[in-house]
Amino acid sequence: MPAPDPVVPEERRTRLLAAAAVTLGRLSDVLTPLGELFAARGHHLYLVGGSVRDAVLGRLGSDLDFTTDARPEQVLQIVRGWADHLWDTGGLAFGTVSASKSGWQLEITTFRSDSYDRVSRNPEVTFGDTLEGDLVRRDFTVNAMAVKVGADGSLEFVDPLGGLDALLAGVLDTPAAPEDSFNDDPLRMLRGARFVAQLGFVLAPRVRAAITAMAGEIERITAERVRAELDKLIGGAHPTDGIDIMCETGLAARVLPEVPAMTLEIDEHHQHKDVYQHSLTVLRQAIDQEDGDPDLVLRWAALLHDIGKPPTKRNEPGGGVSFHHHEVVGAKMVRKRMRALKYPKQFTEDVARLVYLHLRFHGYGTGQWTDSAVRRYVTDSGELLSRLHKLVRADCTTRNKRRAAALQATYDNLEERIARLQEAEDLARVRPDLDGNDIMELLGLEPGPQVGRAWRFLKELRLDRGPLSRDEAEEALREWWNAGAP
């Protein structure tokens, strides 16, 4: 994607600053008294970073970031009694006081002039004396703008590093040399890809070059911090652009190698140049089906659903290509990667389960499944059924309009059958027609493994035949038991 023209008409600057002033003016109940409190103690207060960037973009959230020349203990004294709540989540050691006021979350940080050991990403915290010194240490110029909050409620825009020009041009550049910035904190490289995904910006050429040359430095960062950035990236408005940046610069090869590995595999339908591009299309189509906030489970499953194809690729006679059982292999790969990135167990299992199940629909044909097969489809997906519906539909990327329409119509038919069975049988809560006590009484058993095996037999029977009467269930259980049940 070519970088936008950096020459921005002055009228547009004026309009955006005016709009930001209106946005921030709505915060006067917080900004004005807070500015007065700091001024009364002889200190300066600035709204800074992402808060200013988002105010200019018209997307300000509920989190407000400030910087000040006051030291942390002084900040505590100033806001204590004014803030609704104060807390310490470990930020105080880095000069940050966290507070809330009228529903706003505030972080007030003393001017910083950190230095890094360049082995880990841990800074040696030293407090600075100037706003400019604080801004120049930030990750990107679009995050290095500030608004001075005056004692009288006045707001003064401060932009010594050209952050507004970069924002208006849609370019991510570093305040200082990118090599120095990324050596100090390699996570900033991944954060650059994340901002591409969130804001739709492009990397400045020198930033892209530095990330490409230094991608290996990301291995200094903990898995937990990498995971947090990846979630913000994939949850952005333009996640495929951020994923492209990661793959093109080599970052993905270090933190998510299964994704760039898909560029080596031509998909069997030959409708995309590779499985990687197919997966990005599936991700975009899955996002189109969201009906609320970003669904990270669905998005991760869409991106990773075909990662099992490279290790299962087989060249078939006649020039064809197959990927037998790639859904099974892919689910195992998902678990391994997400565990390495320290994802929660349930989140990992949900994504892996969707990857495992995403191909099952293709055995449906034109509706040949028995009711038993439909019940198993619902039972095996459990609470993931609605996500599985979306993933399967998103996985249809053929450019053949007739074939695409036929696939969607077939899935419509499956969903209609599921709805009918759910209405009749409550498929979400399929259980055997006899419970454990019934089984023990009927077979004369004590609690133990045999009761569990009998229970599982009855559940399988319930899935195969649907609801049974008590007499039918008892007769089937006796026959199974008398035939030498294991």
UniProtKB/TrEMBL annotation:
Alphabetical UniProt keywords: Coiled coil, Magnesium, Metal-binding, Nucleotide-binding, Nucleotidyltransferase, Transferase, tRNA processing
Source superkingdom: Bacteria
Ranges of residues in domain HD: 275-421
Coiled-coil ranges from the UniProt annotation: 397-431
UniProt-listed Enzyme Commission number(s): 2.7.7.72
InterPro entries tied to this protein: Bact_CCA-adding_enz_type3_sf, HD/PDEase_dom, HD_domain, HDIG_dom, NT_sf, PolA_pol_head_dom, PolyA_RNA-bd, tRNA_adenylyltransferase
GO molecular function: CCA tRNA nucleotidyltransferase activity; metal ion binding; nucleotide binding; tRNA binding
Class of this enzyme: transferase
Keyword Transport set for record: no
Keyword Nucleotidyltransferase carried by entry: yes
GO biological process, one term: tRNA processing
A Pfam family matched in the record: PolyA_pol
Cofactor(s) essential for the protein: Mg(2+)
Name of the protein this chain belongs to: CCA-adding enzyme
